[in-house]
Amino acid sequence: MNWIELCDLSQLDEIESLSSNQYFSGVAVFKHSTRCGTSSFVKKMFERSWDKTSNIPVYHLDLIRNKNISNEIAKRWNVNHESPQLIVLKENKVTYQASHSSISASNAISSVL
């Protein structure tokens, strides 16, 4: 998986900009708690099922180290804070969000096609 580490608030502006870039179908953010077994399991399942040929950049947010970024995501994109959680944006709008066992790589990709 070609994760892009999300570790700075300024990257949220970058994500929004990329979500409107014609080259990319959308942008995904995977929020993960490194202290949670369920989150680790879901992350592994997501990595196995993600279509690596898609042109959707995927950002990885370590919630333990970057709680402030998760809080800003919830506020900026009007989503509840959950972990694990997958959020997909296209043209600065959330097209897909899911948490825990509801996370589906194929549904995430389909949400921006």
Please explain how this structure is put together.
By secondary structure, the protein is α/β, with parallel strands linked by helices. It has a single domain, classed as Glutaredoxin (3-Layer(aba) Sandwich). It is built from four helices and five strands. The chain has helices at 10-19, 37-49, 67-77, 105-110, and strands at 3-5, 27-32, 58-62, 85-90, 93-99. It has a five-stranded mixed beta sheet, with helices on both faces. β2 (27-32), α2 (37-49) and β3 form a beta-alpha-beta unit. The radius of gyration is 13 Å and the shape is globular.
Concise account of the structure shown:
This protein has one domain: Glutaredoxin (3-Layer(aba) Sandwich).
Low-confidence stretches: none
Major β-sheet profile: 5 strands, mixed
Mean pLDDT: 95
CATH class: Alpha Beta
**CATH topology label:** Glutaredoxin
What's the CATH H-level homologous superfamily? Glutaredoxin
> Strand sequence of the main sheet, in spatial order?
1-3-2-4-5
Tally of helical runs: 4
Provide the structure class. Answer: alpha/beta
Task: Write a concise keyword list for the protein shown above.
Glutaredoxin; 5 strands; 113 residues; five-stranded mixed β-sheet
Topology overview:
Blueprint: E1 3-5, H1 10-19, E2 27-32, H2 37-49, E3 58-62, H3 67-77, E4 85-90, E5 93-99, H4 105-110
